[in-house]
Design brief:
Blueprint lengths: L21 H4 L3 E3 L1 E4 L5 E4 L2 E2 L10 E4 L9 E5 L2 E5 L9 E7 L5 E8 L4 E7 L2 E6 L6 E5 L6 E6 L7 E7 L2 E6 L2 E6 L5 E2 L2 E6 L11 E8 L2 E7 L5 E5 L7 E6 L6 E6 L5 E6 L8 E5 L9 E5 L5 E8 L4 E7 L4 E5 L7 E6 L5 E8 L5 E7 L6 E6 L10 E2 L5 E3 L10
Parallel strand pairs: 13-17
Antiparallel strand pairs: 1-35, 2-3, 4-34, 5-33, 6-7, 7-8, 8-9, 10-11, 11-12, 12-13, 14-15, 15-16, 16-18, 19-20, 20-21, 21-22, 23-24, 24-25, 25-26, 27-28, 28-29, 29-30, 31-32, 32-33
Length: 414
């Protein structure tokens, strides 16, 4: 370690200016440095964090969402997230939070809308699409360009199944309700929206169970559907013609259920987790370069007791984050070797985790927004990253720093 000092003096009658305590040093200015009080008072380099998905407790911030109910779903962009409360009538149906700052982010409620139980949210531009439990308005369209948010349109599937997932590409809306996926026209957002087509996607329900499409993602004219209580966990649907869709692929990976799904930007990889199994693994990477037939499993990972509720894939860092209930509820997985995913870190949250989104800004700062079942700490912000530096705990120091002491006025006229 090298320390370089410079002194500037303009009053020769001052023989000594001595700073020894932290309060003395606090009167100065710092660049990549800080004052400490390990032995009364010192100057040290500023400790910095090397964000790491695999070390979640390193940069975790906790917040209590206003209201009594626990949010179950979220849809996020960098600096903002939209929360939905499903299955509990005491909560607000739709809440927008803004998140500002990097190391100690601040959370503010920007707007709310109530009147429905919300299972899923999709936001595009000035409009939010809510997947609800309302039998005559499975999808509710909100204008969120200004507060208060207003309901402007809706889509009715004509069946009584709850909407589990909603997705929008261009002027086409997609909603999964029960065993079916429906398409509808959102060229205009107001009033009752016109139905375009529908297709039964869950075809093989488990004996004595009620199967359903749990989550949908639309990429490159194909819809990827995770299935709950079906013989299969993944179905792929050709939606090039929204009025005439057809199933091109069904894949089974174990005997469990699937609730969340992630599809790569080029749609060549599909990732999902399932319920816990004592004899099978729960996280899978599938090759979906081809969209027909049963898709091959590239890699699989055992969550060791955790049932997966939500997943986030950070493609640039080659990490998967799996969240759920039981076991270790937050697990980070290194997927650099797709054929052999391996746990690289985790965190215990006994209340369980309902959903997760990961986002990155233009400066490559990355975050996970997490919903837990803890009613007093139900929203977590976790800063993530590749973890390229620091000690075993993820802490390190910059290569240099500067401290300039306070200006001391002697009061002398000489």
């Amino acid at each position: 370690m090298q320390i370089d000092s410079e002194f500037f003096v303009n009053d020769w009658s001052t023989l000594e200016l001595l700073s020894t305590t932290k309060s003395d040093f606090d009167l100065g200015t710092f660049f990549q440095a800080r004052s400490t009080s390990v032995a009364d008072g010192e100057i040290s380099l500023q400790q910095i964090i090397y964000p790491d998905w695999c070390k979640p407790a390193l940069s975790l911030n906790e917040y209590d969402i206003p209201g009594a109910a626990t949010a179950k779903t979220l849809f996020s962009y960098i600096g903002e997230t939209y929360l939905g409360t499903g299955g509990n009538s005491t909560g607000v149906a739709f809440t927008k939070l803004t998140i500002e700052g990097i190391d100690n982010p601040t959370i503010n409620v920007e707007g709310e809308f109530n009147g429905y139980l919300t299972n899923n949210i999709f936001v595009l531009g000035d409009y939010a699409y809510l997947g609800t439990t309302n039998d005559s308005k499975e999808v509710v369209i909100l204008d969120i360009s200004a507060t208060p948010y207003t309901e402007v349109g809706y889509f009715n599937t004509s069946r009584t199944d709850d909407a589990n997932s909603v997705y929008v590409v261009g002027n086409i809306g997609y909603v999964a309700a029960g065993k079916y996926v429906y398409t509808f026209d959102v060229t205009s957002k107001t009033g009752s929206r016109t139905a375009l087509g529908s297709i039964k996607v869950s075809l093989n329900q488990n004996w004595g169970k009620l199967s359903a499409v749990s989550q949908i993602v639309v990429k490159n004219n194909y819809l990827f559907a995770s299935l709950d209580e079906d013989w299969y966990e993944l179905a792929i649907v050709n939606v090039a013609n929204p009025a005439s869709m057809n199933i091109t692929s069904q894949t089974s990976v174990n005997n469990q259920q699937t609730f969340d799904i992630y599809v790569s930007e080029n749609s060549n990889r599909t990732y999902f987790g399932t319920g816990n199994s004592s004899s099978e693994r729960e996280f899978f990477i599938l090759d979906t370069t081809s969209k027909s037939g049963a898709r091959p499993i590239i890699g699989r990972y055992d969550t060791n007791g955790m049932s997966v509720n939500g997943i986030a894939i950070i493609e640039k860092d080659k990490r998967a984050v799996l969240v759920g209930k039981n076991g270790e509820e937050y697990q980070a997985v290194n997927i650099s070797n797709e054929a052999s995913p391996v746990r690289c870190g985790g965190m215990q949250l006994d209340s369980g985790i309902n959903d997760i989104d990961s986002v990155s800004d233009v400066q490559t700062n990355s975050f996970s927004y997490i919903l837990t079942a803890n009613t007093t700490k139900d929203f977590l912000v976790l800063r993530g990253g590749p973890g390229l530096g620091g000690d075993d705990q993820g802490y390190g120091y910059p290569t240099n720093g500067e401290f300039e002491s306070r200006v001391y006025d002697t009061g002398s006229a000489s």
